[in-house]
């Protein structure tokens, strides 16, 4: 099961990103755990400078703005 | 040449995006060319004397709203495409370890070009400082990013002409560079909140692929959707306010308060502007109307800059990472820069 973390202080876009991850996982029929990381220090620890960020199984795949659905599907499948 | 004889789906999608972009630009040009006839026609439908006060105010409103919205669409779209060439992560890598001085200049320029949303301000600040971008250089970025934004430039261009927009860009950058340099020289790193200093950024593990052209066009469209979708009510409110000033405000009174003769009006404008929260969209139409009534350009520019660049919500967000002392220095340094711009302008264009 893939572990996905959405990095962001809790703005509207971060919530939208969480929703997109869940939708993409449901569409691909893949079980994933999605968690939010809202602590600034923890976010900085991933080395990104823009939010929302997306981490799949410990690897940062996206930072800043909403991801494209096609990319999300690729990251979850990869 | 493709072996299968057809074009690949990716290429097909790219052509659709490019065609959509061209069609959008053509529709824009057509709409813009019809602005005056359409607004004249709308005004003629009203049972009003065109030269009465109410008639003047309504004609102003009906012409300015579509004109401003159209020009803003174009500028925001163009900036969205330009910004797809930049990302906060890449900007940070460019700025890390830069010397004060050249670093401030680069940071202010990148502040204008890098996509930035205010909810990212704190992660960005921490991300920059913990990756070795000097504090003063980080400030140059953080001052330029909100002050010289596409909405401010687009509206100034639409309402006051490209000369004023260009001058605003120049002075905005000058303030960001100088204020960041001053803050850097003061060596205030110890005035950050203690937990910020303990953070060490992880290695930048994200590999960002350069987007293809359809993605850049999409980025332009998305920023139109985001930004114009967010600011249009402000613009309409601002233009309505401007229309009222245009039709009703007594010119002599305004000129005596905000005119060039009243030297104290520049500091007063900065002080009034700091606690006010509007964005460029709401404030610039008002600025245009004030100018029309004899207010001095330096005074209204100072007012506008202090409303946009020094806003309470932004300071509250930054309070998470900056000590109150550092916030006070930030406000004082940027405020002094804005004052200087206001006075200089009134002097130059006297």
Automatic annotation (TrEMBL), chain A:
- Top-rank taxon, per record: Bacteria
Signal sequence annotation = none
List, alphabetically, the InterPro entries matched.
Answer: Thioredoxin-like_fold (IPR012336), Thioredoxin-like_sf (IPR036249), THIRX-like_proc (IPR005243)
Q: Where in the numbering of this chain does the Thioredoxin-like fold domain appear?
A: 3-76
Q: What is this protein called?
A: Thioredoxin family protein
From TrEMBL, chain B:
Topology of the protein relative to the lipid bilayer: Multi-pass membrane protein
Please give the Pfam families that the UniProt record associates with this protein: ArsP_1
Q: Tell me where it mainly resides.
A: membrane
Q: Which keywords, in A-to-Z order, does the entry hold?
A: Cell membrane, Membrane, Transmembrane, Transmembrane helix
Q: Where does this polypeptide localize?
A: Cell membrane
InterPro entries given in the database record? DUF318 (IPR005524), UPF0718_permease (IPR053166)
Family according to the record: Belongs to the UPF0718 family.
Q: What is this protein called?
A: Permease
**Biological source species:** Falsiroseomonas selenitidurans
């Amino acid at each position: 099961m893939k572990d996905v973390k959405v990095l962001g202080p809790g703005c509207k876009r971060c919530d939208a990103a969480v929703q997109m991850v869940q939708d993409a996982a449901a569409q691909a029929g893949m079980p994933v755990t999605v968690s939010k990381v809202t602590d600034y220090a923890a976010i900085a620890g991933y080395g990104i400078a823009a939010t929302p960020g997306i981490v799949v199984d410990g690897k940062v795949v996206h930072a800043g703005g909403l991801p494209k659905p096609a990319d999300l599907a690729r990251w979850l499948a990869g | 040449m493709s072996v299968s004889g057809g074009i690949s789906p990716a290429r097909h999608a790219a052509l659709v995006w490019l065609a959509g972009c061209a069609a959008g630009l053509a529709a824009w040009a057509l709409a813009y060319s019809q602005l005056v006839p359409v607004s004249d026609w709308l005004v003629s439908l009203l049972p009003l004397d065109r030269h009465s006060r109410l008639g003047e105010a309504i004609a102003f409103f009906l012409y300015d709203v579509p004109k401003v919205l159209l020009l803003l669409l174009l500028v925001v779209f163009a900036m969205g495409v330009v910004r797809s060439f930049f990302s906060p992560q890449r900007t940070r890598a460019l700025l890390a370890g830069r010397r004060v001085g050249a670093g401030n200049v680069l940071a202010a320029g990148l502040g204008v070009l890098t996509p930035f949303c205010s909810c990212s301000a704190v992660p960005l600040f921490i991300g920059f400082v913990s990756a070795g971008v000097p504090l003063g250089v980080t400030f140059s970025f953080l001052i330029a990013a909100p002050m010289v934004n596409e909405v401010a430039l687009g509206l100034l261009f639409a309402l006051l002409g490209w000369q004023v927009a260009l001058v605003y860009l120049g002075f905005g950058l000058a303030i960001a560079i100088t204020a960041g340099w001053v803050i850097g020289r003061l060596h205030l790193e110890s005035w950050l909140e203690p937990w910020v200093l303990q953070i060490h950024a992880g290695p930048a593990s994200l590999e960002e692929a350069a987007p293809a052209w359809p993605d850049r066009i999409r980025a332009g469209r998305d920023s139109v959707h985001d930004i114009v979708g967010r600011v249009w009510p402000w613009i309409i409110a601002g233009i309505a306010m401007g229309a009222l000033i245009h039709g009703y405000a007594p010119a002599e009174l305004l000129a005596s308060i905000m005119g060039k003769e009243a030297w104290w009006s520049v500091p007063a404008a900065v002080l009034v502007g700091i606690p006010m929260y509007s964005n460029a969209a709401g404030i610039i139409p008002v600025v245009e109307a004030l100018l029309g009534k004899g207010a001095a350009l330096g005074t209204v520019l100072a007012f506008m800059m202090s409303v946009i660049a020094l806003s309470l919500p932004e300071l509250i967000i930054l309070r998470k990472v900056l000590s109150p002392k550092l916030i006070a220095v930030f406000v004082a340094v940027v405020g002094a820069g804005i004052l200087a711009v206001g006075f200089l302008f009134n002097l130059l264009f006297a």
